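Hi R.,

Here's the chain you asked about this morning:
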Amino acid sequence: MRDFLHRHVLHNLGLKLISLALAVGLWLAVARDPVAEVAVDVAIEFHNIPQNLEISSESIPRAQIRLRGPERVVRHLQPSDVYAEIELGGLKPGERTFDLTAQQIHQPLELEVVQVVPSQFHLRFDTRLTREVPVQARVVGTFAPGYGIQRVEVDPPNITISGPKKHVEAVESAITDPVDVSGAIDRATFARHPYVSDPLIQVASPDPVRITVIMQKAPISGSGAPSAKPE
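And here is the predicted structure, written out as tokens:
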């Protein structure tokens, strides 16, 4: 018995007492650490979305996560420490409602998820479509007296767009930023970006197009005033 005590209890007794004191001190420090709560607004991460699929909902919800835990951890919490994750593998086009629970929230281990808002959200998905659409130049301004537009040339005349199929199919043309031809009497060339107003549509090339506006003497109308009609 004496040999047992010497070997397992008294051996390195000083180090064991120090370790015990440190453990007790740490426990007391944690036990005295007040509990705090914090609400964190986070983006929802979508993982493994099929390559040919697009989110066709115009707005994607964010999640507000309420967390509870030691005040020292809450105070040092960074936005990147918390995120919500949704798995989209094998998803098909159509509408889908997702549950957002504590199991889909990633947070520091010392913190507990108290509440997730919203607990559900609804999204629409559509097949991705890519197609070319014509570019329509937006010409503005006051013509020089007696002049009108003979024709407008756009180079390149078409651009490639992509996005959810139904949205892409609804696009008739892209429109350029306005070009002002006030006072022009011959031809004027401008560089302008084309755009599509639908926020879910992506323009494949962000480069501007060249717009050439060619003016001509306007024919005299029956009222004696010059008239012109752009092509």
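One quick note: The CA atoms of residues 18 and 24 lie 10 Å apart.

Cheers,
M.
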